[in-house]
Design brief:
This protein is of the alpha/beta class and about 350 residues long. It folds into 2 domains: about 200 residues, Metallo-beta-lactamase, Chain A (4-Layer Sandwich); about 80 residues, no CATH class. Helix content is about 40%, strand content about 15%. The protein contains 11 helices and 12 strands. Strand 5, helix 4 and strand 6 form a beta-alpha-beta unit. Helix 8 packs across helix 11. The longest helix is centred in the last third of the chain and has 24 residues. It starts with 8 loop residues before the first helix and ends in a 12-residue tail after the last helix. The N terminus is likely disordered. Bound molecules: zinc ion. Zinc ion binds next to loops.
């Protein structure tokens, strides 16, 4: 095992402790109590609204993970930050993603399941949802003789990265790929760029389950800056493409619980509200004070920064208020999400506000 894959004890202990704290006990969340006692000396860190009970997942075990059956031979594992999914087959295990924070607990979770169902515990196939290290950075744990499958674009991105923890795929596809192993089936599909240029949809039709990473966040608002996505209009569209699949269970790759269809509908409403609010804010925030102050100083970037920040603040405020208590961390990331949506509305949709065509 490469030494860089072996977490130092301190980091492992930190992740375990943090994951335990994140898995809010349902009873505590219901009464609005914090999972962690307030610390007098927290360095002045901001306080956020309590996590709604509906956002919390199962409590992780002593080793820092939870493994659960989705249906039949399909399972998922989480550390409450990240998620992976795996199929136990007659020939070996098909694993989708290898998040480094779960790391060696992927092997423990697979052992837990295969000990009980008598199927082989060796990972024979590893599917990459996309190239990002935070989702596949433990791929090196599975040796060299595993079949690694990804979209063709993932191969190029990984070749450029030259990261020993993310070995290159051995099988790539362009549009569709049906993976059949030991009596089990996954259907992989590429619907164009969204979060990343190479992000794929992983469908387990027999188990009515879809895995799509960094697009839908069951119970939570999307990660900062709309999941740091590279193509925002396509990322927004990917939400609807996901809902067009006939799934009942959703694996989003993040946080501590699985999704149901109502979670997808709710995120789409959040994004619709954020777009409405952002369009309204760019039309209503008065740019004059920003041009007056910083224009006089010849500081063009200060005009852009302060005006766009003011629009993002105005856009986010009503949306964060509406979704606090509904989606976890609405007060944490809605402002950053508004900023990114504003920038996409400007440069992708041409909603330029005061920076439009000069009269
Ligand atoms: Zn990603």
């Amino acid at each position: 095992m490469p030494s860089e894959l072996r977490p130092p004890a301190g980091r492992r202990g930190f992740l375990k402790g943090a994951a335990g704290a994140l898995a809010v006990p349902a009873a505590a969340a219901l009464v609005g109590a914090s999972a962690e006692p307030a610390h007098a000396d927290d360095g002045g860190l901001p306080d956020y609204a309590p996590i709604p009970a509906a956002a919390a997942g199962p409590r992780v075990n002593e080793a820092g993970y939870h493994v659960g059956q989705i249906a039949g031979n399909l399972h998922w594992v989480t550390d409450s930050f990240y998620q992976a999914m795996f199929l136990t087959t007659r020939r070996g295990v098909v694993l989708v993603d290898a998040p480094p924070t779960i790391g060696h607990n992927l092997l423990r979770a697979i052992d837990d399941v295969t000990r009980a169902n008598g199927r082989p515990n060796k990972v024979t196939h590893l599917v990459y949802s996309h190239s990002h290290a935070d989702h596949i950075g433990a791929a090196g744990l599975f040796g060299t003789d595993v079949v690694r499958i990804s979209h063709a674009a993932t191969a190029g991105l990984l070749a450029r990265a030259a990261d020993p923890n993310r070995p290159l795929p051995t099988v790539t596809f362009q549009d569709k790929y049906q993976l059949k192993v030991g009596g089990e089936t996954l259907r992989l599909a590429y619907h164009g760029p969204n979060h990343s240029p190479d992000n794929i949809f992983v469908h387990a039709p027999e188990y009515a389950t879809l895995m799509l990473v960094d697009v839908l966040y069951p119970g939570w608002v999307p990660f900062k800056n709309l999941a740091v996505s590279q193509d925002i209009p396509a990322w927004i569209k990917a939400q609807s493409i996901a809902m067009d699949y006939p799934w009942q269970t959703f694996v989003g790759g993040h946080l501590g619980r699985l999704g149901v269809r109502a979670d997808g509908d709710l995120q789409i409403r959040y994004m619709d509200d954020l777009e409405t609010s952002t369009r309204s804010a760019i039309a209503s925030v008065d740019p004059a004070p920003f041009f007056a102050k910083y224009g006089a100083q010849g500081n063009s970037w200060a005009i852009f920064k302060t005006f766009l920040d003011a629009v993002a603040d105005a856009a986010a405020a009503p949306v964060a208020a509406k979704y606090t208590g509904v989606l976890a961390a609405a007060d944490v990331f809605t402002r950053d999400n508004a900023w990114t949506l504003l920038e996409s509305l400007r440069i992708d949709a041409g909603v330029l506000g005061p920076f439009g065509v000069h009269p």
